[in-house]
Amino acid sequence: MTAETATPARPRALTRYKPYWAKRFGPAPFLPMSRAEMDALGWDECDVIVVTGDAYVDHPSFGMAVIGRVLEAQGFRVGIIAQPDWQSAEPFKALGKPRLFFGVTAGNMDSMINRYTADRKIRSDDAYTPGGEGGKRPDRSSLVYAQRCREAWSDVPIVIGGIEASLRRIAHYDYWQDKVRRSILVDSKADLLLYGNAELQVLEIASTGMALGIDPEQTYEVASFQLRAGDVLLSFTDGLTDAVNFDEQRFGKERVRGCVRSVLESEPDASAARIVDQIMWTLRSFRGLRVPNDDVTVVAVRVTG
Ligand code: B12
């Protein structure tokens, strides 16, 4: 008889990803809930916006604060939209378009449990709203919020999480409708559902980004340009523009344009390879010995003939 011993997998560290460049902003006193608060922090956009059915309380007993602060510690800029008016998409645009995704949660409780008693009477209070006031969130908040986020910015991925999404992740019996409902992922039309304590998963998604490629479900804009001899087509990953130097400045698009212009001024017939070399050389001298915060890909095409 052979005895097999299994070594339990070591838990993956929350900090195993390279911090995102915005880490230089440091922790915000509170995660911003308005454009004015974003401006005060020097942010032009949020990377992730968490929409929640609870009031924003910056405390570890509030899911949005835990998820938001974990993402922030990794360098992401996180905004909060708490208990928005769900009648239109406008309140969901309050912080602009998130760069990565919307994180949607009903809050610390299932919204139906939060709103109704076991004998289906409406609750008069809400333990997760200032003053304990009821009526600050809709029935099935995850569905409604996800829908409004989609209306606000149709091309932004939506990630749902928290207790409502987690407990309704597969077909389930719904006490209020007395029927079996399908997965909330299908009904909410969200892109992803994160089950349970989602700190690791949410970091994984934010840090690795969306896959590069053509998604057959998406609609893409098609445009045509008449290219002429000498034109340069340049594409690059955000690792180039987001590279940071010791003065905490970003490389940015203007520097990329500057590189191309300066090569073409001194060498009008410069090849695509020469242009890429110039960009990479300028990036290296800009960044100095600072450790790169992301990978960099640059593709140049030079029209000849
Ligand atoms: C503390 C607490 C209370 C306190 C709240 C005080 C307060 N204002 O903080 C009090 C005692 C008032 C209370 C009351 C009630 N409670 Co209570 N309560 C809890 C308890 C023990 C902890 C909640 C908490 O702090 N969680 C910590 C946060 C951080 O966890 P979280 O929200 O789940 O967040 C994590 C994940 O869900 C996820 N996540 C969260 N948000 C997001 C967002 C995104 C985008 C993603 C990706 C992931 C994600 O990641 C987070 C971090 O790991 C929970 C049990 C539990 N362990 O959760 C029950 C619990 C929430 N309560 C519950 C219930 C039923 C009630 C009552 C209805 C009881 C009653 N019959 O009166 C009342 C509500 C009354 C009302 N009018 O609202 C149930 C809810 C069940 C459900 N399916 O929703 C729970 C789950 C207990 C249980 N297992 O039955 N409660």
Q: Mind sketching the topology for me?
A:
Elements: H1 35-41, E1 48-52, H2 63-73, E2 78-82, E3 101-105, H3 111-115, H4 141-152, E4 158-160, H5 163-167, E5 172-174, E6 179-181, H6 184-188, E7 192-193, H7 199-208, E8 232-236, H8 238-241, H9 252-266, H10 272-287, E9 298-302
Parallel strand pairs: 1-2, 1-3, 3-4, 4-7
Antiparallel strand pairs: 5-6, 8-9
Helix pairs in contact: 2-7, 9-10
The chain binds cobalamin (B12).
List keywords for this structure.
305 residues; alpha/beta; Rossmann fold; 2 domains; 5-stranded parallel β-sheet; two-stranded antiparallel sheet; 30% helix; 12% strand; elongated; binds cobalamin
Structural commentary:
There is one protein chain. β1 (48-52), α2 and β2 form a beta-alpha-beta unit. The strands form three sheets. The chain has a five-stranded parallel β-sheet, sandwiched between helices. The protein has a two-stranded antiparallel sheet with strand order 5-6. Strands 8-9 form a two-stranded antiparallel sheet. The protein is elongated. The protein is 30% helix and 12% strand. It has two domains: 21-208, Rossmann fold (3-Layer(aba) Sandwich); 232-302, no CATH class. α2 (63-73) crosses α7 and α9 crosses α10 (272-287). It has helices spanning 35-41, 63-73, 111-115, 141-152, 163-167, 184-188, 199-208, 238-241, 252-266, 272-287, and strands at 48-52, 78-82, 101-105, 158-160, 172-174, 179-181, 192-193, 232-236, 298-302. The protein has 305 residues and is α/β, with parallel strands linked by helices. The mean pLDDT is 90. It has ten helices and nine strands. Bound molecules: cobalamin. Cobalamin binds next to α2, β3, α3, α5 and α7.
